[in-house]
Amino acid sequence: MKAKEYCHIPYIRYLSDEGEALHRLPAWTENSDVLVDYYRSMVIARAGDAKAVALQRTGQMGTYPSALGQEAISTVCCSLLEKEDVLIPYYRDLPGLMKRGIPLSDVLLYWGGDERGSASEAWGKDFPNCVPIATQAGHAAGVATALKVRHQHQVAMVSMGDGATSKGDFTEALNLAGVWQLPIVFIINNNQWAISVPRKIQSGAPTLAQKGVSAGLTSIQVDGNDVIALHEAVNAAIKQARSGKGATVIEAITYRLGDHTTADDASRYRESEELQEAWGREPIKRLRNFLYQRGLWNEEKEQALQKEAAALIDKEVKRYLNTPLPEISDLFDHHYAQMPAQLEKQKQHAIAKAEAMNMGGVHS
Amino acid sequence: MKAKEYCHIPYIRYLSDEGEALHRLPAWTENSDVLVDYYRSMVIARAGDAKAVALQRTGQMGTYPSALGQEAISTVCCSLLEKEDVLIPYYRDLPGLMKRGIPLSDVLLYWGGDERGSASEAWGKDFPNCVPIATQAGHAAGVATALKVRHQHQVAMVSMGDGATSKGDFTEALNLAGVWQLPIVFIINNNQWAISVPRKIQSGAPTLAQKGVSAGLTSIQVDGNDVIALHEAVNAAIKQARSGKGATVIEAITYRLGDHTTADDASRYRESEELQEAWGREPIKRLRNFLYQRGLWNEEKEQALQKEAAALIDKEVKRYLNTPLPEISDLFDHHYAQMPAQLEKQKQHAIAKAEAMNMGGVHS
Amino acid sequence: MNSSVSETVDQSIPKEVSEKLTMVEAVNLALDHAMADDQDVVLLGEDIGVNGGVFRATQGLRDKYGLKRVMDTPLAETLIAGISVGMATQGLKPVAEIQFMGFIFPAMEQLICHAARMRNRTRGRLTCPMVLRAPFGGGIHAPEHHSESTEALLAHIPGLRVVMPSSPVRAYGLLRAAINDPDPVIFLEPKRIYRAVKQDVSYDTAILPLDKCFTLKQGNDVTLISWGAAVKETMEAANTLQEYGASVEVIDVATIKPLDMETILTSVRKTGRCVIIHEACKSFGVGAEISAALAEEALTDLKAPVERVTGYDITMPYYRMEDHYLPKPDDIIKAALKTLSFH
Amino acid sequence: MNSSVSETVDQSIPKEVSEKLTMVEAVNLALDHAMADDQDVVLLGEDIGVNGGVFRATQGLRDKYGLKRVMDTPLAETLIAGISVGMATQGLKPVAEIQFMGFIFPAMEQLICHAARMRNRTRGRLTCPMVLRAPFGGGIHAPEHHSESTEALLAHIPGLRVVMPSSPVRAYGLLRAAINDPDPVIFLEPKRIYRAVKQDVSYDTAILPLDKCFTLKQGNDVTLISWGAAVKETMEAANTLQEYGASVEVIDVATIKPLDMETILTSVRKTGRCVIIHEACKSFGVGAEISAALAEEALTDLKAPVERVTGYDITMPYYRMEDHYLPKPDDIIKAALKTLSFH
Ligand SMILES: Cc1ncc(C[n+]2csc(CCOP(=O)(O)OP(=O)(O)O)c2C)c(N)n1
Ligand SMILES: Cc1ncc(C[n+]2csc(CCOP(=O)(O)OP(=O)(O)O)c2C)c(N)n1
Ligand SMILES: [Mg+2]
Ligand SMILES: [Mg+2]
User: Fold this and answer.
1) ipTM exceeds 0.95
2) Are A208 and A349 contained in the same domain?
3) Could you tell me which of A307, B76, C165, C257 has the fewest CB atoms within 10 Å of its CB?
4) Virtual CA dihedral for B77, B78, B83, B87, nearest 10 degrees?
5) Ligand 2 site: residues with CB under 6 angstroms?
């Protein structure tokens, strides 16, 4: 008897690839504000994301991992969080970060090689970007533990890629979430690729959601390009967590329409047909179609939105590009609350050296 | 929808606690040799195990983790392996090691603080004892990969405790086994405790077997005190692996009748009632009852067996106790095939120091 | 007392009574008092609850402070470090136990990539006031992997503090300081001397400064530098050397990261001779940094080469032969005499 | 050629033709030749197959040697190290890639507890002939965690070898030697100079000895000691110093564990002056061991304190400011002039 035969994971979907309702929609969709907001947020995020890629291509920013095609997941997840909840994002969450109120310029600063991109107050208690894959799953479990210990009713939401589900940190965190009934929402952004490694050679499990089963968690799959399905799944998961009923694993199925990062060239390892096909399922066009059908969107609104996005991005890019280099002392001052004596000496050395050489930094 | 509602793990059992057949037994049990051999092996192992504890108690050996009550798992698993298969054991596998033909004295030497306990030819390509929990799961995956790369038809068998299933190494190995279809048999010796941590606070999953589900593996539970159930499960798993059909996770339910190790005092954290109850399910008595019922065993045979065990153990203990200390050079000679120059100097220093101080070692 | 959630002090603390305690009992008392003083202090680790830890360092604390503040974790060191980071960023002060230092390696990614960096990478927005305790070192006839001393790996990491006590009073004072500290501290407990001596320890016992060496004995002819359990043999050697007529200074480094080179340099500038003693392997050990810094910064003051008395560059032998690995008072005496007779 | 399974040599190897190759191309060629020479050599890691590795070190090898010998693993570094140990014990020679050294930490438990110890704990019954490759170091404007130099952590571990090349020819020769070696080798590739220069490399390029320093330049006044990418700045500094009239000896340590102290001592005994250059943090870095050993074993030969030119004791800054962290030729020159003017 094979595992697949005795494990069933539900899959949620409401909209067809063309944005048509596949079955009765949930009541909240009657109120169009939410859906329009999702649409607006995704469009702005996609424009910001494209700008980030362009900045890299023009030598004005470092390596950047585009969220192209995956905007729905991050957008819906972060829309449904309360400000006091804690987000533990991964590196492909630009749309969600913007939704959390974090300035695009912060995110550009981060990828522009400046620690101050994770420093502003806008971040609240949210975590900075996480590069070492799956390590953030442990952080989420710790955040959730803190919330639980203090009888607070916030939730921790953590996201990661399909590749991240192979790393032990992830399953250790799932296991803890199960046994301590932690208020966590685990979001697996399954974009089918981990750099060049396709989903099917990442794991032999028919779904990644079922990794949650191994920890006794509620585990579901959802169409990650369908904001309605996402809203349903994430909302239920947040409610469950907030009411003390434990964590949920949501595998959101999407597709990485871009390269892994600007340092990658996906044409080396993936078929262009697959990519073309995936474009037919992407979330923004799908929701636009839906909104058009319902008469909630039109060309005029679209034009205005594009303009609004451009203006916002322009402002943020300027702020990014005009951010002066940090002081040399900044490199030393944040390692300890109390500066060790020897480090102070090294700091003075670095300052003197920079002064002597009149050294600048990158893009200054 | 909770995970337990959509995941079903089969549970195999043939013998009641009292050793009565609960349903029709498999055909192979008609041939009594196998069952009698299991019985004999378990009895000898238990005597050897008790001796190891006694050696520790009398200051003649270091810390030792008794396999008391868990003899069936290790015994059946290793009986069904071929010599050329590779065993990657954990520290509570004395019965299986003996079944593999590894002298008891080797195992005593290991726990007696002597590396040579893992060195003898009897070990073949089997792994030495593994202390860092769950790390052996990765080794098993590597061994199985080697077998597969070379088109060999052996299998890798790896065992571990219930606690080990919480460590990420374990799930990383499961995942690989799934995606590479590796010839592995994963044995979870679920003895209900990981030192003082009971099973229920180790994981929120209703079974530990379902961790295999997260990797798409065949996953079952079996009564780990029932040699017939074990035989069925392990045999099927080995066959599946050997024929290239991939790995199985077997969660064998048993109970740790002793302390965690001789350094532990389980009465600090577990109820004596639970322990008493567990004695009612232990594997040796159960099989003896069965054999008696079928007329395959009697008092006379039992007496002879006890004598035989005592003689064997006596011989092995003597060999252990009479093993002289290694040479000082031994501490240095096995770090590299080619001794680095500086290490050679340190070796000469150690030798000179030992000669000067006429230093001995422990129990010499 | 750095309490952000509550100012209540548990009335059960016997503020006045001072008791003769072993080091592991002093650790227990420090945890107890830290938890009483600050509701944000929580403990976590394997077997630390009902069992009170395999060395009993957390004994009684679960009964006193409850399940929510004394948490038995599943068996997963990566997780233990990871959730500590998560908790600490939200304002708790987790004190995690790694059962033996030999099992700290799965925690390395979290310690190096996150705990050590959280303050720097958020420019202080999030911090990581966590303590990771682990018993370490050999000499108790423990099984394989239970006798490691790999403090050098942690000492190399910017953003970490690495602290090890060598007496009950210092265990109490340094652990309280480590818990109060707003940054991550690896607190390594030399288990070989967990029960070696007893000292008076109470709520009034001083909270000691981190980042400072302790001069245990003053002298003019040679400086012996050590930390952890090896301080025991170092003091024995110092006493014997004293009998031979040498005036010996003994320094317990106590915090090896960041190093208090000032105290060490001042001493060696005075004595001109130095022996460094540690149990870890010699090469690339903590002794190397101290020896290098001395020769670099006080070359002309050195009357003799610095000597290192350390473990060999081999894996800790299983226990039958571990005595051949561990530095002995005689080794220290020999090295000291060698430096003393160097011209 | 250490082949236990097969003696076949792939005919496609252009034995005579020597090509100008970059370091990463030399790595690729070494892997290719090792695989052709020995069927037991297999490659594994993340994205090493179709993609040929994120730096293209394994490009073309999957097509040439097939899926069974060039294995894309799931994303799990603990696993990569663990299965390498498992394979190696059964006689394969796995060459694993860790995508960046910043992601090596999950592998530490396997490297320290198993790879390094397998031979010793079985007294040679099982061995661990594996190579773990990882690109390391800064200076390429990479994202966070992609520019680390933590070689000191590995150098402290008995049973490991730690090797880093500093030129295409040495990359080829040392990697072939590492793969041939019957013990575990951590092979760190300085990615900043992956494509810095080209050299003639072919099947006839020498397999170089491990555990040996390379003297890149002979001189009498001062010894500059370095490894990895910093050898580039070190050579630049040496050339400038030479113009100033100093006679400079340059040593590329190449194998930092175990250290070839003989070559280093011989050189410094001759010059009396020494500067050690590395990119990793200063404190408890590899430079500390070399500096300490020099002062301990050649104190009276030292005409000046040993100087260390290194990274600061801080986390590698994100890339905008990483230049302030990295040692520059000027720093080396200054340090050398300081030792040269010391009296
Ligand atoms: C521990 C670790 N190993 C390797 C890497 C290098 N790396 C960065 S992203 C990536 C693939 C991640 O894939 P996935 O989890 O599917 O997320 P995606 O990028 O597709 O969103 C890898 C291997 C890393 N960052 N951390
Ligand atoms: C990585 C690691 N962490 C901690 C330990 C200490 N330790 C030894 S055995 C054990 C409990 C293991 O329980 P389980 O896996 O259920 O096996 P059992 O001993 O019950 O057979 C612990 C925590 C260890 N050996 N390795
Ligand atoms: Mg992905
Ligand atoms: Mg158990």
Assistant:
1) yes
2) no
3) A307
4) 80
5) B 92, 131-133, 160-164, 189, 191, 193-195, 256, 260; C 46, 75, 77, 99, 103
Query: Is residue B64 domain-shared with residue B213, that is, in the same domain?
Result: yes
Residues A85 and A164 in one domain: yes
Number of independent structural domains in chain A: 2
Question: B127 and B243 share a domain?
Answer: yes
Q: What is the pLDDT of residues D112-154, one digit of tens each?
A: 999 999 999 999 999 999 999 999 999 999 999 999 999 999 9
Joined together, the tokens standing for residue A213 give 């089963």
Whether residues A315 and A340 fall in one domain: no
The verdict on A359 touching D (C-beta cutoff 8 Å) is yes
Q: Which of B198, B126, B123 is nearest to B159 (CA)?
A: B126
The rounded percent of chain D whose pLDDT value lies above 90 is 94
CA distances to A135, A332, A360, C302, D308 from A350, in Å = 32, 9, 12, 29, 15
Examine the domain organization and report whether A30 and A116 are in the same domain: yes
What does the angle CA B110 – CA B116 – CA B117 come to, to the nearest 5 degrees?
A: 35
Distance of residue A309 Cα from the nearest chain C Cα, in angstroms: 28
Q: Two tokens at C69?
A: 């503040």
Residues with CB under 5 A from ligand 4 (ion): B 161-162, 191, 194
User: What is the predicted pLDDT for the residue at C4?
Assistant: 36
Cα distances (angstroms) measured from residue B29 to each of B36, B291, C74: 10, 11, 39
Tell me the C-alpha distance between B336 and B346, whole Å.
14
Rg (CA), chain B: 21
Checking if the pLDDT of B245 tops 50, the result is: yes
**φ, ψ for residue D279, nearest 5 deg:** -85, -25
Q: For residue range B109-149, list pLDDT tens digits in order.
A: 999 999 999 999 999 999 999 999 999 999 999 999 999 99
Contact between C92 and A149 using a beta-carbon 8 Å cutoff: yes
Select from A195, A196, A203, A253 the residue to mutate for testing ligand 1; criterion: most ligand atoms less than 8 Å from CB. Answer: A195
Which tokens go with B98? 């003996």
E strands, chain D, in order: 19-21, 41-45, 70-72, 93-97, 131-136, 161-163, 185-190, 199-201, 214-217, 222-226, 248-252, 255-257, 274-281, 307-311
- The residues pairing with D190 across neighbouring beta strands, listed in sequence order, are D136
**Contact between C74 and A143 using a beta-carbon 8 Å cutoff:** no
For residue B336, what are the domain limits? 328-364
Tokens of B50: 């008790």
pLDDT of chain A along its 364 residues, tens only? 444 456 889 999 999 999 999 999 999 999 899 999 999 999 999 999 999 999 999 999 999 999 999 999 999 999 999 999 999 999 999 999 999 999 999 999 999 999 999 999 999 999 999 999 999 999 999 999 999 999 999 999 999 999 999 999 999 999 999 999 999 999 999 999 999 999 999 999 999 999 999 999 999 999 999 999 999 999 999 999 999 999 999 999 999 999 999 999 999 999 999 999 999 999 999 999 999 999 999 999 999 999 999 999 999 999 999 999 999 999 999 999 999 999 999 999 999 999 988 766 555 4
The Cα–Cα gap between A134 and A136 comes to 5
**Residues A120, A247 within the same domain:** yes
Mean pLDDT of chain B: 96
Q: How far apart are CA B135 and CA B119, in angstroms?
A: 20
Pairing of strands A156-161, A184-190: parallel
Question: Which residues, including other chains, have CB under 8 Å from residue A50's CB and lie 6 or more apart?
Answer: A66, A68
Q: State the DSSP code for C111.
A: I
The CATH code of the domain that includes B241 is 3.40.50.970
Domain co-membership, A51 together with A140 = yes
The domain boundary, picked from B304, B321, B338, lies at B321
